[in-house]
């Protein structure tokens, strides 16, 4: 039955074997745990710089629904979303490109019973586990600084994992189209403007009509809106749209990635 | 004398060839990203800071406050970027330093050539950035143009010690540490985005140690035309010391690595 389903469905329904790849990455990173741990500090530095320093210059913020919050509480969820994006994108682009092109890791793996879909799910699962560690620590720092205003913040961690899923899937799909390291300039070219302009540092209402619309359709904006609503407690039904957007982006990315991996490596 | 000139000419020839092949790849990181920062923080966030009227910036706009800081930070980031992977690459991966010392060049010449290329990259990036800042109205007075030599000095004060570290590394995981615990904290806490006096005391003192803080102070004082000659000399001397000591260690490190 399972074999029949895999032939009929566009996406193979075997999730299990990706775990071997997760285990492999875990073993590799055990040797360079300092690099792993240090990844946690970057978003925290941003949070401290903006939360302590710039916040004093900006003062309090009034959200669209009239809630007044401190600037640090406004920026922190956006930092959480951005760091989930950055971590996932880095893992899914640079690391995967290196493993694919130079370490020839996947060639070796596909010589075993692993299939392209296992490689894709395995890599994405690893990226998500790693991202979840960083996000959890970040949320603890937010709690310590008094920047969490609502019990909805319990959902902030799954939210961050969802953002990671969206960007890991998309990043991996794009990586399969990359020809050389020069193409990675495009990765920075998309993530950096999103980091700066996706209502991260000031509300989306600041932008004039057309630009605001452009901001609102970016995936990072969806993530920021989701996290900000959860940590500030301004929750509404529209969050489901944000979440669906991110889930769809991740799924589509993974599907494309596994198809392309198969094409590139199993010729 | 003519040997020195000849060696220098060959180095210029080499680095010009490298740059001709790689300049496109550096367009986004060196020109576009600082501009985006300027727009997002200076203009976007600036409208909230200016509207808040806290007066913490001494009557200038937030854009004018951060522009000199962003210029110095950009110099720092470009300089460190060009002193990490390229240097270790010259030793370990592409090994072009070894080819260089197979010619009449000494390891010291190779290091000076590398640093001169870093200076070239810092300078070209900062010239473009400074022009854009000027067009956006980010310079409080025309004296702000003197931020260019300051930015160059900041770049070299960071590049030399980072080269010194790079010549002593076995693999590139040390670079992640340099970026995460050196460059990014320096970028965020050296007074580019807010006065360091707002920081808790002990972090404030860490900020004074960073060469970037001295560069930001100096280029901001120049831009606001509030230079105190003695303080300025102190800033300059501190930056020069980082450059000088760093270069000495870099030359020593490279000599040991190439000739052993």
UniProtKB/TrEMBL annotation, chain A:
Keyword set includes Cell membrane: yes
Pfam family for this entry, one: ABC2_membrane
Keywords associated with the record: Antibiotic resistance, Cell membrane, Membrane, Transmembrane, Transmembrane helix, Transport
GO BP: response to antibiotic
Chief location: membrane
Stored InterPro entries: ABC2_TM, ABC2_TM_bact-type, ABC_2_transport, Nod_factor_ABC_transporter
One Gene Ontology cellular component annotation held by this UniProt entry: ATP-binding cassette (ABC) transporter complex
Transmembrane segments: 33-57, 69-94, 124-145, 151-174, 235-257
ABC transmembrane type-2 domain: residues covered: 34-264
UniProt record similarity statement: Belongs to the ABC-2 integral membrane protein family.
Name the UniProt record assigns to this protein: Transport permease protein
Species whose genome carries this gene: Kribbella flavida (strain DSM 17836 / JCM 10339 / NBRC 14399)
UniProtKB/TrEMBL annotation, chain B:
UniProt keyword Cell cycle present: no
Membrane topology reported for the UniProt record: Multi-pass membrane protein
GO molecular function: ABC-type transporter activity
Pfam families cross-referenced by the UniProt entry: ABC2_membrane (PF01061)
UniProt GO BP: response to antibiotic
Membrane spanning stretches: 27-49, 61-80, 115-137, 143-166, 178-196, 232-251
Record keywords, A-Z: Antibiotic resistance, Cell membrane, Membrane, Transmembrane, Transmembrane helix, Transport
Localization: Cell membrane; Membrane
Domain ABC transmembrane type-2 per the UniProt entry, residue ranges: 25-257
Entries under InterPro entries matching the protein: ABC2_TM, ABC2_TM_bact-type, ABC_2_transport, Nod_factor_ABC_transporter
A single GO cellular-component term on record: ATP-binding cassette (ABC) transporter complex
Family under the similarity heading: Belongs to the ABC-2 integral membrane protein family.
PANTHER family in UniProt: NODULATION PROTEIN J
Record's protein name: Transport permease protein
Organism in which the protein naturally occurs: Kribbella flavida (strain DSM 17836 / JCM 10339 / NBRC 14399)
Higher taxonomy: Bacteria, Bacillati, Actinomycetota, Actinomycetes, Propionibacteriales
């Amino acid at each position: 039955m399972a074999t029949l389903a895999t032939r009929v469905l566009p996406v193979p329904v075997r999730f299990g074997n990706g775990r071997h790849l997760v285990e492999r990455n875990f073993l590799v990173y055990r040797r360079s745990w300092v690099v792993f741990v240090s990844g946690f500090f970057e978003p925290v530095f941003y949070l401290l710089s903006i939360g302590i320093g710039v916040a004093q210059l900006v003062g309090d913020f009034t959200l669209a629904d009239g809630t007044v919050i401190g600037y640090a509480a406004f920026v922190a969820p956006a930092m959480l979303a951005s760091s989930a994006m950055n971590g996932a994108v880095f893992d899914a682009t640079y690391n995967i490109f290196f493993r694919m092109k130079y370490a020839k890791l996947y060639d070796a793996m596909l010589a075993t019973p692993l299939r392209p879909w296992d490689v894709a799910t395995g890599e994405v699962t690893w990226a998500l586990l790693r991202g979840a560690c960083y996000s959890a620590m970040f949320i603890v720092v937010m709690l310590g600084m008094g920047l969490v205003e609502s019990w909805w913040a319990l959902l902030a961690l799954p939210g961050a994992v969802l953002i990671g899923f969206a960007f890991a899937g998309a990043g991996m799909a794009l990586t399969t189209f990359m020809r050389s390291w020069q193409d990675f300039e495009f990765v920075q070219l998309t993530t950096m403007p999103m980091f700066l302009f996706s209502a991260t540092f000031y509300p989306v209402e600041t932008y004039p009509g057309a630009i605001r619309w452009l901001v609102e359709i970016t995936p990072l904006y969806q993530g920021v809106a989701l996290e900000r609503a959860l940590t500030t407690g301004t929750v509404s039904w529209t969050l489901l749209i944000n979440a669906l957007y991110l889930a769809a982006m991740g799924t589509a990315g993974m599907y494309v990635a596994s198809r392309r991996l198969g094409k590139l490596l199993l010729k | 004398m003519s040997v020195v000139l000849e060696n220098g000419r060959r180095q210029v020839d080499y680095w010009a060839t490298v740059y001709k092949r790689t300049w496109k790849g550096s367009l986004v990181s060196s020109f576009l990203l600082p501009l985006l920062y300027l727009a997002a923080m200076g203009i976007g966030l600036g409208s909230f800071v200016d509207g808040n009227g806290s007066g913490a910036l001494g009557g200038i706009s937030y854009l004018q406050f951060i522009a000199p800081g962003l210029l110095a930070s950009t110099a720092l980031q470009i300089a460190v970027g060009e002193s990490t992977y390229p240097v270790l690459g010259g030793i370990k991966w592409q090994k072009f330093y070894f080819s260089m010392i197979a010619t009449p060049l000494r390891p010291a010449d190779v290091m000076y050539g590398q640093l001169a290329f870093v200076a070239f990259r810092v300078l070209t990036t900062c010239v473009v950035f400074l022009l854009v800042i000027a067009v956006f109205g980010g310079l409080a007075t025309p004296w702000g143009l003197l931020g260019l030599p300051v930015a160059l000095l900041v770049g070299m004060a960071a590049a030399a010690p980072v080269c010194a570290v790079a010549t002593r590394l076995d693999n590139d995981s040390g670079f992640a540490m340099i970026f995460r615990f050196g460059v990014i904290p320096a970028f965020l806490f050296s007074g580019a985005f807010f006065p360091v006096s707002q920081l808790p005391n002990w972090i404030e003192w860490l900020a004074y140690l960073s060469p970037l803080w001295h560069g930001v102070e100096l280029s901001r004082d120049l831009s606001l035309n509030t230079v105190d000659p003695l303080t300025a000399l102190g800033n300059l001397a501190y930056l020069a010391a980082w450059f000088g000591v760093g270069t000495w260690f870099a030359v020593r490190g490279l000599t040991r690595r190439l000739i052993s």
